[in-house]
Design goal:
The complex is a heterodimer of chains A (351) and B (550). With 351 residues, chain A is an alpha/beta fold. In chain A, 22% of the residues lie in helices and 23% in strands. The longest helix of chain A is centred in the middle third of the chain and has 17 residues. The radius of gyration of chain A is 20 Å and the shape is globular. Chain B is an alpha+beta fold. Chain B is built from 22 helices and 22 strands. In chain B, strands 3, 4, 5, 6, 7, 8 and 9 form a seven-stranded mixed sheet that branches. In chain B, strands 13, 14, 15, 16, 17, 18 and 21 form a seven-stranded antiparallel sheet that branches. Chain B has a five-stranded mixed sheet with strand order 1-12-11-2-10, with helices on one face. Classes of the chains: A alpha/beta (351), B alpha+beta (550). Chains A and B meet through helix 6 and helix 8 of A and helix 5, helix 6 and helix 21 of B. Chain A: InterPro entries: MBL, RibonucZ/Hydroxyglut_hydro, Xnuc_lig_assoc. Chain A: GO terms for molecular function: RNA endonuclease activity.
Chain lengths: 351, 550
């Protein structure tokens, strides 16, 4: 039997043939990064390899790093391995990592979603012998409605609030979800105000060539009448913080796949849950796995046990890697747990 | 059904009381009475008899969704609600049904009445016709309950505002409205119209009054309540709160859940008939022997079954310990001051002199003396003291703003123990998907000095939402093994548990059973090794094997 191309090490996923790690959680010499969310892209590695599309956002998150970039599909020989990156459709620059050694192909998905959202390159299926898949929403209760419907609903809600003279606050992860929502807003309804953490990522998106509508900062001192028609995008950590006080009696909404479940919605205590996720839902996970043609699937972070069992029952050879990506918590949906961007994390684990 | 589904969504989404009342008001104003009748019933917490067993519902749902049973179980673990789980996994509907609510309740009745073999097909055809929101409600109604975070009080307020009828009148009628099983008594637009009709004469029947509830006293009474002379003190009994209603040749006993429990206490019914017509006592049902209360566990044996045998009646004798008089000679006494109702109560019970109808004695003294009495609570088998303002009227529910009129429970401090979190289970409803129900252990020290953790109590209340999320995250990161919905956790977290009583219990592995355990605080300062021992807990047991309920 051949040895596995990618194995689990204490530092993270490791490819011995190329002597590099994928999204390692401890400092290593050479890291291939699938995307710039904090649980996948960490500081302290010697050298980084990531997609060219994600260069600006990665630098915005990690600062001055030794970064080499690849276009999607471009091949790079590292040791005995041939590495290429392919769009994962999760956030700007997100990539699946394809590793080939002597004709055997493994693909590590990072985080992915199948529906094209207009703010990043859309997911592309990659044929593989072994596919390492995330499983954040790997239960059949998670099924998303099309983005166009969700955005139309959001715009209707905003318009109704604006007509009633209340600002509309959307809590969404500062990197990815926020820009996706922003790109889908009907900006003739009113002004769009972004929290500083969101605006920092907006800048990185715009610098990367993604068109986003004009946004304003609270520091501009918008007048009260205008603010009452505004849609505000803020990170989840802003909920309940003093920053929110300026919006008075506002309506709020939390945009996350977790909002699919009533208990999670009620815990969030917002007026509305917008079931919008940057991860694949159950049908999409199954479709993606099928399209790789992989006979072997290794499941990481999320609903690991049920996914593994289900895939085995479907006749695949399924196993699991216990990673430190995401976790099962409410806010794991592309959570930003970066000190600089999300100043307080009320949901964090015990200190 | 869609209109009701929209109301449900509005109630479910909002955290504001005002918005909820307004949403219900708008719904009732526009809804035909035959639908409103059911909406009131289910919103106010009325139960429907289960129309199909949960197992059948789950199996049929799994089959229709094309998923194996185990995966549906996994989904249920994540969602925490079977009705919702099924609504989420079923394939999209084929029709778009919007029959009115009462028609769907009729279909539920048909489902309930159907032979077991016909139920799956009925379920399937209903699911095919309903959209996701209506499906969820339909499933909820099949399993009997709605639980939408609306209290009966809010429903009362909404109806009162729609109908222009005083909230008290609605509240009183609502008790009877909810107490009769619609499967037996029927439900109709007429019943709804009667519920919101202008108040009439002599329509009281055997209905109780809404219970007045007490607040826990958190401060020293001298600071919170002022002069002790303004207050009446009584023991806080550990029994079943009830109203004994005596009207027109009949009597009834209502528990605090406004549930009729007359049949379980026939001897109290006999005693009540010796009272003059047109009176209502408020008090506590207690298991009682030789002039003192028996532990609550004894009383519990009387309430777990619907009819009671002679033998049980003899082995667990009960009394009604009255502390308030709400009605006398058919007159509502609730607006009268506490002291006046008290006087009339004592006069009434002295006259009737029935050994099962006791008057809870007043305890006099300044705050210092009362504190001394309170300290004796455990020895007397009571939970502490009740403090009631002398000149206050009898209120409705748990009155919030006006501290002057409130009843206060001044309980003795609970027993406490530092225990280690050992197992966790996911919660339901608002806590769905969160590990919120915990099993705690203390150290058992063997003769050779070796120590093992022995589970002894379950608790799921006392933490803030933020603390619970943090504990949940710890559990997920430190799970040792999963057994279905339960997981074992690396024994590291220590909590201070409070509990009210302790009894020897051969049924428990630890040999003890605690009453009302709950988390008082998370001892983040304490390592597991410093948690308490079983031996220390057992030392609290009195020689007879129990300590009184505190």
């Amino acid at each position: 039997m051949r040895t596995d191309l990618i194995t689990l090490r204490p530092e993270g996923l490791y490819c011995a043939a190329g002597d590099f790690h994928i999204d390692p959680w401890r400092p290593v010499a050479r890291a291939v990064i699938t995307h710039a969310h904090a649980d996948h892209a960490r500081t302290g590695h010697g050298a980084y390899l990531a997609s060219r599309e994600g260069e600006r956002v990665l630098r915005a998150r990690l600062g001055d790093i030794a970064l080499q970039t690849l276009d999607y599909g471009e091949r790079l020989r590292i040791g005995d391995a041939t590495v290429s990156l392919h769009p994962a459709g999760h956030v700007l620059g997100s990539a699946q990592v394809r590793v080939e050694v002597e004709g055997e192909v493994w693909v590590a998905s990072g985080d992915y979603k199948l529906e094209a959202d207009g703010t990043c390159s859309a997911f592309e299926p990659v044929r593989a012998h072994t596919f390492i898949s995330e499983s954040t929403f790997g239960l059949p209760v998670y099924r998303w409605r099309p983005q166009a419907e969700l955005l139309a609903e959001l715009n209707r809600w905003w318009a109704a609030n604006a007509d009633a003279g209340r600002s509309s606050v959307v809590f969404a992860y500062a990197f990815g979800k926020a820009q996706r929502i922003l790109a889908g807003l009907e900006t003739r309804i009113g002004p769009v105000v972004c929290h500083g953490a969101v605006e920092a990522m907006n800048r990185a998106y715009r610098d990367s060539g993604v068109a986003l509508p004009a946004t304003r900062a609270v520091s501009e001192g918008l007048d009260a009448d205008l603010l009452r028609r505004a849609l505000v995008i803020a990170p989840p950590s802003a909920q309940g913080s003093p920053w929110m006080k300026r919006f008075g009696d506002y309506a709020d909404c939390f945009a996350s796949g977790w909002m699919q479940v009533r208990g999670a919605r009620r815990r969030r205590a917002v007026d509305r849950g917008l079931v919008m996720s940057d991860h694949a839902d159950w049908p999409a996970l199954m479709r993606a796995i099928g399209e790789t043609g992989a006979q072997r699937v290794i499941v990481t972070h999320g609903q690991v046990a049920p996914m593994v069992r289900w895939l085995n029952e479907q006749g695949l050879e399924a196993g699991a890697f216990r990673t430190e990506f995401g976790d099962e918590r409410d806010d794991a949906d592309t959570e930003v747990r970066d000190g600089a961007l999300a100043p307080d994390t009320p949901d964090g684990p015990p200190a | 059904m869609k209109r009701f589904a929209s109301l449900y969504d509005a109630l479910d989404a909002s955290t504001s009381t005002r918005a909820k009342v307004e949403a219900m008001r708008a719904y009732f104003a526009l809804t035909p009475p035959e639908d409103a009748a059911w909406a009131v019933y289910v919103l106010a917490g009325g139960k429907l008899r289960q129309a199909a067993p949960s197992r059948l519902l789950r199996e049929t749902g799994a089959r229709v969704a094309g998923l194996p049973d185990w995966l549906v179980d996994e989904c249920y673990e994540a969602v925490g609600d079977l009705a919702e789980t099924l609504a989420l996994i079923l394939p999209p509907p084929e029709a778009d049904d919007d029959a009115p609510l009462h028609r769907w309740v009729d279909r539920l009745g048909a489902l309930r009445a159907a032979a077991a073999g016909d139920k799956p097909a009925l379920l399937e055809s209903a699911w095919r016709a309903l959209d996701a929101r209506s499906r969820f409600l339909f499933n909820k109604l099949i399993t009997g309950g709605l639980r939408v975070g609306v209290s009966r009080l809010l429903v009362t307020r909404a109806l009162s505002s729609v109908a222009g009828v005083p909230a008290e009148t609605i509240a009183q009628r609502l008790i009877g409205y909810l107490a009769s099983d619609p499967a037996r008594a029927g439900m109709s637009g007429t019943r709804y119209e009667a519920l919101i009709a202008p108040p009439g004469e002599g329509e009281r029947g055997l209905q109780p009054y809404p219970f007045f509830l007490a607040h826990p006293l958190q401060q020293a009474p001298a600071e919170a309540l002022g002069d002790a002379d303004d207050w009446l003190a009584e023991w806080k009994w550990d029994g079943i709160r009830g109203q004994l209603v005596r009207r027109a040749d009949e009597a009834a006993l209502w528990s605090r859940g406004e549930e009729l429990v007359s049949e379980r206490f026939p001897e109290l019914m006999e005693a009540a008939l010796t009272l003059p017509e047109g009176c209502v006592l408020d008090g506590e049902v207690l298991a009682w022997q030789d002039g003192a209360p028996l532990p609550f566990a004894r009383l519990q044996t009387r309430i777990t079954r619907k009819t009671v045998s002679r033998r049980l009646i003899d082995s667990v004798p009960v009394v009604f310990m009255a502390y308030d008089l709400l009605e006398l000679d058919g007159q509502d006494l609730r607006p009268q001051p506490q002291w006046a109702r008290r006087q009339k109560l004592e006069a009434l019970l002295t006259a009737s002199a029935h050994p099962r109808l006791l008057s809870s004695p007043l305890i006099s003294g300044d705050w210092l003396a009362l504190a001394g009495q309170r300290a004796q609570s455990r020895d007397r088998g009571v939970e502490g003291l009740m403090l009631k303002r002398r000149d206050a009227a009898y209120g409705v529910g748990r009155v919030k703003s006006d501290a002057r009129g409130q009843w206060w429970k001044w309980k003795v401090d609970p027993w406490t123990v530092d225990a280690v979190l050992l197992y966790a289970q996911r919660g339901h409803g608002r806590r769905a998907g969160l590990y919120s129900d915990y099993t705690f252990a203390v150290w058992s020290v063997a003769a050779d000095g070796s120590r093992t953790l022995v589970p002894f109590a379950k608790a799921y209340s006392g933490l803030t939402d933020a603390e619970m999320r943090a504990v949940d995250a710890f559990i997920k990161a430190n799970t040792i093994e999963r057994f279905g919905p339960v997981c074992s956790v690396r024994p590291e977290l220590v909590f201070e548990l409070g509990f009210e009583g302790l009894q020897a219990s051969p049924r428990h592995k630890s040999g003890i059973a605690v009453r009302f355990p709950r988390m008082l605080r998370w001892r983040q300062d304490k390592p597991a090794a410093e948690a308490d021992t079983l031996e220390a807990l057992k030392a609290l047991l009195s020689p007879e094997g129990s300590i009184p309920n505190g």
